[in-house]
Specification:
Elements lengths: L1 E6 L6 H17 L4 E3 L27 H13 L2 E11 L2 E9 L5 E6 L5 E2 L2 E2 L14 E3 L2 E5 L8 H9 L4 E5 L3 E3 L4 H22 L3 E4 L2 E4 L9 E4 L3 E3 L5 E4 L6 E6 L4 H8 L21
Parallel strand pairs: 1-2, 2-3, 9-10, 10-12
Antiparallel strand pairs: 1-17, 3-4, 4-5, 6-7, 8-9, 11-14, 12-15, 13-14, 15-16
Length: 291
């Protein structure tokens, strides 16, 4: 499966960002992409650096204007497209939602982000209600996509549940970066941890992983911090965690990579982790902490 990642820097102008994405999607299609994955909340700047009620104006219903826009692009280019939107489910009820479009432009499925962070510069709990759709893959013409979103990528439970539900590939639209005050050593520790944990999900589940991050410096609109330097590094790993491609930390890029979904069968035969799971001994996992 020819899989494309679009690592993009955004501006405050939503329509400009969407037009830029449309051009990048067209380029990936020309280069033979069958599946194209966009970064988290790609229509706008990463607005969760601050808590501002006016920002809720960015949210849209699903279906809505953005799903119409991206559905038409999927149909035009005959690709399966993974997008990430700020969903207005009802007045006062909002989600961070991934939407997947089939090659005919119709919505194949949605996933609402389950794990919601609340850290300096990432005040997502102010904006997003945790997802309530569980961890279910989305069936498409290119395979069963285990779509998760950003903070979900740190949780092995989420990846495992997607795998147990039949996902053939794990996909993580992402917006993550450095505090501008972090030194170089701390920056590399964080970036490497982010890559390593997701490669671990690939290994533990015998599945390819696609992680797509944004790039560039986005200022804190309130001036309370120095902003976020998004570290790019979008990557695709195979089912043994092998890196098939890793993007630069500071460059916008469109990249099409061949991902062999059939390799999971071979890998799971030599490393049968699912066979050897001790499901009779894991009941304590549902507790917050074992005191």
């Amino acid at each position: 499966m020819r899989t494309a990642i679009i690592q993009q820097a955004n501006t405050v102008n939503v329509e400009d960002n969407k037009a830029k994405l449309a051009g990048n999607i067209a380029e990936c299609s020309r280069n033979g992409a069958q599946l194209i994955v966009l970064q988290e909340l790609h229509n706008s700047l990463y607005f969760c650096q601050t808590e501002d009620v006016d920002t809720f104006d960015l949210a849209e219903p699903i279906p809505g204007p953005s799903t119409d826009f991206y559905g038409k692009l999927a149909k035009q280019h005959k690709v399966v497209l993974v997008t990430s939107l700020f969903e207005k489910r009802a007045t006062g009820l909002y989600h961070n939602t991934a939407v997947v479009y089939e090659k005919d432009g119709l919505i194949a499925g949605v996933y609402r982000k389950m794990h919601i962070p609340d850290d300096p510069g990432f005040y997502e709990k102010f904006y997003f209600t945790p997802g309530d759709m569980g961890f279910m893959p989305i069936n498409t013409s290119v395979g069963k996509l285990g779509v998760l979103v950003c903070w979900d990528q740190w949780y092995p439970e989420a990846a495992r549940l997607m795998a147990l539900a039949g996902a053939e590939i794990l996909i993580y639209p992402t917006a993550i970066g450095w505090d501008m005050l972090d030194d170089e050593a701390e920056r590399e520790r964080q970036r490497n941890a982010w890559i390593t944990v997701q490669r671990g999900h690939a290994v533990a589940n015998g599945l390819p992983v696609v992680a797509v991050n944004r790039v560039g410096i986005e200022n804190d609109p309130c001036g309370q911090s120095a902003g976020i330097n998004f570290w790019g590094s979008s990557f695709i790993a195979g089912p043994q965690g092998e890196l098939l491609y890793e993007a630069p930390v500071d460059t916008e890029i469109n990249k099409v990579v061949e991902v062999d979904l059939k390799r999971s069968e071979d890998v799971r035969r030599i490393w049968p982790f699912l066979r050897d799971r001790r499901i009779d001994a894991y009941s304590e996992i549902i507790k917050r902490f074992r005191d």
